[in-house]
Amino acid sequence: MPDQTVDRARAIGTAGLSDALDKLGLPGAVPGIVPFDPRFAICGRAFTGQYEPVDALGGTVGDYIDDVEPGQVVVLSNDGRQDCTVWGDILTAVASARGIGGTVIEGVCRDVADSLSIGYPVFARGRSMQTGKDRVRLAHTGRPVRLGSVLVHPGDVVRGDADGVVVLAADRAGEVLDVAEAIERAEDGIRMAVAAGQRLDEARAAMGYHSLQTKAGAR
Q1: Whether 128 contacts 110, CB under 8 Å
Q2: Is 141 exposed, middle or buried (0-12, 13-18, 19+ CB in 10 A)?
Q3: Which end of the chain, C or N, has fewer beta carbons within 10 A?
Q4: Angle between helices 14-24 and 173-195 (to 10 degrees)
Q5: Helices (H), the chain
Q6: Cα–Cα distance measured from residue 189 to residue 166, given in angstroms and rounded to the nearest whole number
Q7: In this predicted model, what pLDDT tens digit does every residue of 113-162 receive, in sequence order?
Q8: Which helix (H) or strand (E) holds 167?
Q9: In contact, 5 and 172? CB cutoff 8 Å
Q10: How do beta strands 126-127 and 145-147 pair?
């Protein structure tokens, strides 16, 4: 089914969405998680999964991918671990074939060349060849997880592009998008004014550029 909220978010870059989050005083920008290819872009509802270290009880990296709906973005937290991966070539191939919107990892990924070769978007803190098998196990899916300091709930809107990742809480997404669209209109107005011959400082002043992202009530 069409998702107008996701469609609106897809039309705005992460920079614009981050500015709107600042204006509203909301969390959502995720520093340090970036795409393997700057041309990668994602936008969809979050499907969440949390990893934890393996103990004496064992466990597996999990078989959840068939439960992810087309268009959803897989959001996995391995608590930022750099020594083992939670995503690789098989998951990339299956996710791409199923029409999944992309993957965001609080941690690292391997088999990066496969992601690049088929154009499946992966955003992560880095890359490594070392498997997560026998090192981590899937603790749960469908519950909140963290990307850095940002808490991601299932169904939140995840947007990623060359600049990184932002998360819009499902219950505030419409408000964030309203503000982001207003900021975009103001910045478009500045570009048009400058193209018509106006000085940049004058165009910025006319559109209130220097306070576009300032939180309401702040000085």
Answers
A1: yes
A2: middle
A3: N
A4: 120
A5: 4-10, 14-24, 89-98, 112-118, 173-195, 200-207
A6: 25
A7: 999 999 999 999 999 999 999 999 999 999 999 999 999 999 999 999 99
A8: strand 164-168
A9: no
A10: unpaired
